Amino acid sequence: MSTSDSEPLFRTAGTVAGLESVRSLMNAALDILQDVSAQRTGPVAPGGPEGARAAAREVLTGPLLPEEGSAPETALADLVRPYAQWSADLTHPAALARMQPPPIDAAAVAELVAAVLNQSLHAWESGPFALELDRWVVARLAELAGYDPEEAGGTLTPGGSVSNLMAMTMARDTVLADKTGVYPFLGGMRACAGQPVVLCPVGVHFSIERAVRLLGIGEENIVTVPVDKAGRMIPEEADRILRELPEDKIAVAMVAVAGSTDLGIVDPLPELAAVARRHGVWLHADAAYGAGALFSPRLRGLLDGLAEADSITVDLHKFGWSPASSAVLLVRRSETLLSFGLQPTTCLSADDDTCAGFIGLQGSSLQTTRRSDALKIAITMRTLGARTMAAMVDTCHDLARYAAERIDREARLELFAEPPLTSVLFRYVPPQGGDAEADAFNGRLRRRLMEEGRSLIARTHITGEDGVSRVYLKLMLLNPETTPEQLDHVLDDLLAAAEEQETGAHA
Predict the structure, then answer these.
(1) pLDDT by residue (tens digit) across 91-115?
(2) Is the pTM value of this prediction over 0.85?
(3) According to the UniProt entry, which residues carry N6-(pyridoxal phosphate)lysine (predicted)?
(4) Which of 70, 146, 147, 261 fits a disulfide with 74 by CB distance 3.0 to 4.6 angstroms?
(5) In the CATH scheme, what is the code of domain 150-356?
């Protein structure tokens, strides 16, 4: 839309003129990001939640959709600067709270390309090459996990929570069909002769509980399997539970942890797979975080038996240096994706478009319109290569071990356990008071460090061998450019802040 004597009101990104405009606007946005980066003093701006809200109140004025639009340069300048100023700086060595690695440069550019071209994967005419790239990336990731790529399948997802939901859906539908002859996606749960149950260890990710709620199984039908002293699910206990299950209960899934987000726990996958096969139960491995070990010859052995699982959750935006969302659900047998409407591709049962090869991916995902996340994954892996990916994983693991050793030497810090991956759990132990006081102290300490913009550290509750749940602080090491000296500075600063808090120097 334009008039003969004025500039167009807008430009679509993919035209020749539009691409030149994208180049100019992107340069302007990068100038803002560089300016903000040069002014940063920590991993987040000081001020805490009230500071972020105040910044939002100052900028987010007027209507979202004004009567008259503004120049794109103005809209970008108005919102990109405060967005950047109040973003967590994932490249900062004190950004240690969450599983958000800083993405590599090529992956960020791939995001821009995907946005400009705006392909979708639900139909062939929505993204011809994007569809082939998606299938290829899924097949190669299945191969990396140990699956036979000719038999395996999968789909890219928005994240581990959706992957886990899809895995539980396939488990419910596949196992109930095998054991009762009823497909829940056709007749519903009431048609099933028995109550489905899901076996999980203590501490399984909350998305599994959410999934069984959404699927009509119900949280009360999660059966907790005992764990050993290392927190690993005990196969003999899982076998016993399945043998003793009442006749009106039908075990549909057993969820194994393959790298827990707090302690990096990996359940005994080969033994659990044998139990699952013996009882006709679907084994799902939640490797959303732990799958990063696949890139490291040093750590890959932790995931022995992963390929025995019927499905695997992998998040490459956690331990793969690709921007979110870069998640995939892998399945050992591609036909189990039938739960999401996957249709056979023979001419006996397909329309003429399908017979001619015009096949989209709408039948293998919860999503219809779906962006091409495979592009940034492929570009990240092609850019880094196996040797560099291994070095990055190992560097993060070394940093975690260094942090653990330093924490273990400090009289006032208590290390929970040696880190098998890159997560380090510890707590500050005040000189007086019991566990409740220590929990409150560590909570205040973490909030203070974030509010002052000094460091971003996570917290969690861990139950010890004595059965008591305690608050622990968590360092998540996913930036291979962090140095041991920078980690020392973070811990020195934490100790100094804790001492100030003890003496009342900070209210």
Answers:
(1) 999 999 999 999 999 999 999 999 9
(2) yes
(3) 318
(4) 70
(5) 3.40.640.10
